[in-house]
Specification:
Shape: globular
Helix content: 40-55%
Number of domains: 3
Structural class: alpha+beta
Strand content: 15-25%
CATH architecture of the largest domain: Alpha-Beta Complex
Number of helices: 15
Number of strands: 18
CATH topology of the largest domain: DNA primase, PRIM domain
Oligomer: single chain
CATH superfamily of the largest domain: DNA primase, PRIM domain
Length: about 400
């Protein structure tokens, strides 16, 4: 990024912060703040160990300094501006989940497709794990589009504030299905040939959490196999680790009532024998299908890290010029970052494109070629922030 590009972007960021609110976290005076400025040379670390007593102080800093990136701590401190963590005196921290599209499995044809897939993952995380399994309430949950390639969820429930890193790591393990054991998941019934998925009560229909996910997975796989021709069905049963009494198993797989028995009671009727491989494969398949694809090795320390800094909602992401957008659960399905997080205008800006590419913004696709030309301000700033273009006065 050359000097004239840096000056242009800083001025546009300053104008934004002078005219638009940001959304600081609760208990603002207890947070540490960090910023990366446009004026810093490459490789310079973040300016952190700052604190603000009021929203007005924070707003004045943002409009005056116009930082490229703005962050606040997930933690609460007695002395947030102290230069060392020991002196800050940690008092607790929000529980944070960070989902990043860069770490999703599979190949995507476009940026918009990647963003749509990570949105599906954040919805699953919120609905199936955070609300249904863990019992967090929507009102204790802040959802934020990161301004780049993913989403953050801030859990501000008092019950999690004092959790240390090991306990937070256990929450991540639960979401990932880490440590689930076939020997603990499946229990042999006293009746011959009957197995029960642990967590289902014989006197009560249904279950929840990973127990129910295992039941759903086994029922769906047996239903798929039951619809296959005889030879193909037998081959699939062998792949799952069954090698005896396949005829009887196929009869069960072709009986719709068996699916209801699995789903409602957690009961699996299989002939006696070595079931270790079958249950091991079924559990592994369940985890692959139902775990939330957290941001690989990035998200796990984010959730477990009790001293992390995270992007300020309402600020600008300096790598895209998109707004770090606060959301509520009901808005997620219809939220489109490439429309709803765009904050700069369509006015033409002259730039030198150094890396040709395709850019999709506000329902338009721009196939940008190398060289000097005029582009809408929001497209030009996206390219400049990504290091793919320079400002041409």
């Amino acid at each position: 990024m050359n000097d004239q590009t840096r000056v242009f972007l800083k001025q546009k960021f300053r104008e934004y912060y002078s005219e638009n609110p940001v959304y600081p976290p609760p208990e603002l005076p207890d947070r540490e703040w960090g910023f990366i400025l446009f004026d810093e040379t490459p490789g310079v670390a973040m300016r952190r160990h700052k604190s603000f007593n009021t929203v007005g102080e924070l707003s004045d800093y943002l409009s005056g300094m116009a930082p490229r990136h703005a962050y606040h701590s997930t933690a609460y401190y007695t002395h947030p501006a102290a230069p060392t963590m020991v002196e800050k005196k940690w008092q607790g921290a929000d529980l944070i989940f960070d989902l990043d599209a860069d770490h999703l499995p599979g190949n995507f044809n476009s940026y918009s497709e990647m963003l749509e897939n990570v949105k599906k993952e954040i919805i699953r995380l919120i609905d199936e794990f955070l609300i249904d399994d863990m019992g967090f309430r929507e009102k204790d949950m802040d959802i934020v589009f990161s301004g780049g390639r993913g989403y953050h969820v801030h859990i501000r429930d008092e019950k999690v504030r004092s959790l240390k890193s090991p306990e937070r790591r256990e929450i991540v393990d639960y979401v990932l299905g880490t440590g689930l054991d076939p020997e603990n998941m499946f229990v042999r019934s006293r009746m011959t040939g009957i197995w029960r998925i642990r967590g289902f009560d014989d006197d009560k229909k249904g279950s929840y959490g990973w127990n129910m996910r295992v039941a759903r997975y086994i029922a769906s796989k047996l239903q798929e196999i039951g619809k296959m021709p005889e030879k193909e069905a037998r081959e699939n049963l062998r792949r799952f680790g069954l090698d005896k009494n396949l005829k009887k198993v196929l009869e069960m797989a072709r009986n719709p009532e068996s699916y209801e028995t699995i789903l409602n009671k957690g009961l699996i009727e299989l002939s006696p024998g070595n079931m270790e491989n079958f249950f091991k494969n079924m559990l592994a398949g369940t985890i692959d299908d139902f775990k939330v694809d957290l941001a690989g090795k990035t998200d796990e320390p984010v959730t477990a890290d009790i001293k992390r800094l995270i992007r300020l909602p309402g600020s600008i992401h300096g790598g895209s010029a998109f707004r770090v957008t606060p959301l509520v659960r009901d808005r997620l399905e219809t939220f489109n970052p490439l429309n709803d997080a765009i904050i700069f205008s369509d006015s033409p800006v002259r730039v030198l494109v150094t890396k040709p590419q395709q850019v999709e913004i506000k329902d338009k696709v721009y196939r940008v070629s190398e060289g000097v030309g005029r582009l809408p301000e929001n497209v030009a700033m996206f390219l400049m922030c990504r290091g793919c273009a320079e400002y041409e006065p």
